[in-house]
Amino acid sequence: MITAEGLVKRYGAKTAVNDISFTVRPGQVTGFLGPNGAGKSTTMRMIVGLDRPSEGRVTVNGKPYAAHRAPLHEVGALLDAKAVHTGRTAYNHLLAMGATHGIGASRVREVIEMTGLESVARKRVGGFSLGMGQRLGIAAAMLGDPSTLILDEPVNGLDPEGVLWVRQFVRHLASEGRTIFLSSHLMSEMALTADHLIVLGRGEIIADAPVADIIAGGTRPRVLVRSPHSSQLADLLAAPEVAVIRSEAGVLEVTGVAASGIGDLAAQHGLAIHELTPLSASLEEAYMALTADAVEYRTEAVR
Ligand SMILES: Nc1ncnc2c1ncn2[C@@H]1O[C@H](COP(=O)(O)OP(=O)(O)OP(=O)(O)O)[C@@H](O)[C@H]1O
């Protein structure tokens, strides 16, 4: 469990994180989203004690990170996959990290196997691809078998198989009751991986809700309609709150009326319909709507 209360981080005149409070709960994957420079990395660094809050506090399992006697057992973090001593082998890197917590070779072998690094464990990290570096970072985060895992852009640089692996891995860890907090710029992947989302915009929280609620709340339902009477139907649907796009001959994309309403209207006028398909909104659309609003609001506030 991660709890932030009134967290503020200023760098000189720049406020990177502006009074945010949130809770990241165990047993689910919580995604951390926001445009570049929104303050995600700064927040993650404060959680693991790499940056000091200017105001407020953040705790992991009830205590600030630094107050834990054996922090690797509480929180595993992947913050910068490149921050590894490149002359060492992956095995030796993990062994050296583990030594600070009395974690021995058998656990090192376990995390190597868990992250699919067996074939490269004896190779120098300097020669690793970005994807291998990410896997090594995740292996390091898992060393202490922590109940909370923080992953900053864990799928960055991974191939499709690696992306799928991370998704299944973190979902499995959450199902074991762990707290998983991860950031990503890949919306489609986030929609498949996370249960809950916290969205930051310019250092402030602009959404903190289940993924399904964010998708439903940020976009209006759209319906694809195929009919030999599409022009007549478009005229009948015309209303201030309804948008109708004619994408191709005989096809309408309607926003602002549910599929049932369109079907009823067509039936009342005896118009045949060949297809009536509710189009599911994407997280990307909802995210763009959310963050665009935040930017507009901020612009107005500054004037
Ligand atoms: N050490 C620092 N000194 C000065 N400003 C900083 C420092 N670290 C971050 N910032 C600024 O704080 C703001 C938030 O940065 P941060 O890296 O946390 O954003 P982010 O959401 O992680 O962005 P990205 O998606 O690009 O990684 C940015 O405007 C950044 O320039």
Can you tell me about this structure?
With 303 residues, the protein is α/β, with parallel strands linked by helices. The chain has 2 domains: 2-209, P-loop containing nucleotide triphosphate hydrolases (Rossmann fold); 220-279, Alpha-Beta Plaits (2-Layer Sandwich), CATH 3.30.70. It has 11 helices and 13 strands. It has helices at 40-47, 71-74, 90-99, 105-114, 130-142, 160-175, 187-193, 211-218, 230-237, 259-268, 283-302, and strands at residues 2-11, 14-24, 28-33, 55-60, 75-78, 148-152, 179-183, 196-201, 204-210, 222-226, 243-248, 251-255, 275-279. The strands form 3 sheets. Strands 5-6-7-3-8-9 form a 6-stranded mixed sheet, with helices on both faces. A 4-stranded antiparallel sheet has the order 11-12-10-13, covered by helices on one side. Strands 2-1-4 form a 3-stranded antiparallel sheet, with helices on one face. Strand 6, helix 6 (160-175) and strand 7 form a beta-alpha-beta unit. It is elongated and about 75 Å long. The two termini are 39 Å apart. The model is unreliable at 296-303 (pLDDT under 50).
What is the fourth-level CATH superfamily of the largest domain?
A: P-loop containing nucleotide triphosphate hydrolases
Total beta strands = 13
The CATH architecture of the largest domain would be 3-Layer(aba) Sandwich
CATH class of the largest domain: Alpha Beta
Portion in beta strands: 25-35%
Instruction: Quote the distance from N terminus to C terminus.
Output: 39 Å
Hetero groups in this structure are: adenosine-5'-triphosphate
Strand arrangement in the largest pleated sheet: 5-6-7-3-8-9
